[in-house]
Amino acid sequence: MTQHKRRASAQQVIRKRAVVAAAFVGTVALGTGVGVWASSGGDGGATEGGARQSSSGRVAETGDAATPSASPTTGRSSPLSQAPRTIPAVRSHTAARGPGWKPQKADRVVVSDGELADEGKLIAGELGLTYAGQKDDVRAGDVRLALGGGGGNQESYTMTVRDGRVDISGPGEAGVFYGTRTLKQEVHGGGTAPEGVVRDEPAKPVRGFMLDIARKPFSESWIEDRIRELGDLKFNELGLHFSDDQAFRIESGSHPEIVSKDHLTKAQVKKIVDLATSRHITVVPEIDSPGHLGAVLAAHPDLQLRNASGVATKGAIDISKPASAKIVDDLLNEYAGLFTGSQWHLGGDEYQALTVKDPQAAYPQLAAAARQKYGASGTVADLTTGWLNDRANTVRGHGKTMRAWNDGFYRGTSVQAAGDLQVAYWTGKEIGARQPVEYLSAGRKVLNYNDEFVYYVLGQPQTFVYPTGQRIYEQWSPRVLRGTAAVPASYDGQILGGSFAVWCDFPNAQTEAQVAAGIRMPLRATVQKLWDPGRPSLSWQDFQRLSAKLG
Q: Where is the composition biased (Polar residues) (predicted)?
């Protein structure tokens, strides 16, 4: 479709002027007039013969330059618009009278700032419109993206549907992108974006989905499909757990001997990261240590942790050996450049040396290393905390913000975990379990991975059952960190958000397609509660129907 403006013959112009005049008279007779939008922040009125109201309520050009005009249907004869139905729901909509906006082939997407070109091209392609680039002129049917306005939240946006046009603006590119996701959902399947103003922003800055690709190799295309789904739902993190006892799933240059046969190449990972970045999603890698390193240890059995009887401890690396720190740091340094986002997951959970009754007696080499490093009172827990801090130092050098599982933080140690480590709270079942309030009262920032609600564990081992969207939607919130009880509201600001997690303990229990179908509604319920933790306005049944309609 050409970007040039359509011209009308002189006879057509005369006829159109007559239509405008008649519409104007009728509107004034209703006591409204074209000043309605001007008095409510509108950006222009009709000029003599310069524009007409189209059948869709749009302003159509009739000359060399388009002139914005109030819609004659925005008077009292039009009902007030209804708030858009989206997932997650928009947090504020100011209703207005008018026909709204519906995409048509002749429409274009324009940007006021060149930085928004990617967002503009994406929404133009999705809606079948022309991307016209950076333009200052105004045309009927325009979707305009702009930076500026709003508060300091870079994920906030304002979307105004008025005079047959759509304007989406926000202080950051992410917010403008989310505005385009709202527009896409509004007009899905031939619908109309309702007249009025949406003002929207997320309650929580972290809205994540974590995927265990170590136990089950997911294809590149499946992961990319999830990224597109996550982007449309306004998630902003994808966690990749790619190293565990079962496998190591990403190509390595520093230690190719540890890589499993079925793995992603670095080129594939770069494509995944680039696609995620285009959807304002940060990919958060996790190389878990000092436990869950079985795949690494299979190639380096000399680094396997053994107890006093010489029996190997599953998945555990011997943290008393300098070579153990070196191989893990090699990997952390190698992948820091591949994963370009600012977030990193250090793991730290389920180190089996600390699950026995007397770690000092069971692992004398660890006890000796602890005393050597921390003095006579040093313990295996101190040594393990020191290990986590040392790995944090490695990753911190790459400018990353780090998190670790809550059972990687230990009570009663003389060595404290680094103050900038965020707590990924997933369980209250570990030995010496600590309540979430212990971390919060110490001033730590916490992320919600509550295994009671947002853990999808293939095969449903132990006490796990597949989570339902309804239970998340009706009972969970970011403050429900452990079990079913919420922590006090005074800690809400320290809870950064959360992640829905897929773990593949029994990888063959479901196919990729079954996993995608099984997590569909739980993902939508999770993001609804992370975007707005309050009680949803829709019933679960209505939420399901909306989800089916949106596809």
A: 68-84
